[in-house]
């Protein structure tokens, strides 16, 4: 296989991944990082990126990709009036603080840290969605403001390590505190916007000057990966948002749970193979 054929196959794979990412962003209120990170990881493996920078490069590039995807998804949900703006106002600063800490950790953490964080969170969320019942609630209302803020910082930290927009975590939290699934999904799209921008900037800084990065990378963000995935996500995110508002609550929960289960399996294989 010549170099041109390899490049074309890589481009097609990333464009298809971007299309799927956009739909997932709209349907589940996530930035699509749970699909983008493993796809980019495999793409970087295929192109010979060094082991020690492959995972943080996939995570950082995913956060950059999430920026336009989350913005478009959040706007689509906001037009339907489903976003809980009060929660977003409380979470904004703590989310960004958690992301900054996570980006700092990324400069020194081994690849296994990112994969384990992804697996643990995805398994917890998928169990809740697949087997949980409406009675699985902590309360019908959100807790006191300081506690809500603390939860936001944890969401930001874990999202920065996972390369996701925080949709899975924020959706879990909001449903446990009595928010309807459609409101939780729509609000999570807004969370993705707050996380992705400082997250991408943080990974650029965390990877700045690191050895063995590919020539197109700015820190831990791949410009080629960003350029190929983003256009497809922008086209398909509104389609996913429209689909989310047509699905029954339980169908949306099961779909999200199965999606996270598949991602968990993928990362378990990657982490322990």
User: Given the structure, what is the number of helices?
Assistant: 10
Question: What is the average of the pLDDT values?
Answer: 82
Largest sheet, in brief, is: 2 strands, antiparallel
In N-to-C order, the SSE pattern is HHHHHHHHEEHH
Q: Give the strand tally.
A: 2
Structural category:
mainly alpha
How far the N terminus sits from the C terminus, by CA atoms, comes to 26 Å
Radius of gyration: 17 Å
Structure overview:
The chain is 78% helix and 1% strand. It has helices spanning 3-28, 33-46, 51-78, 85-106, 111-131, 145-162, 167-176, 181-207, 223-244, 249-272; strands at 217-218, 221-222. The protein has a two-stranded antiparallel ribbon. β1 and β2 (221-222) form a beta hairpin. Its main location: membrane.
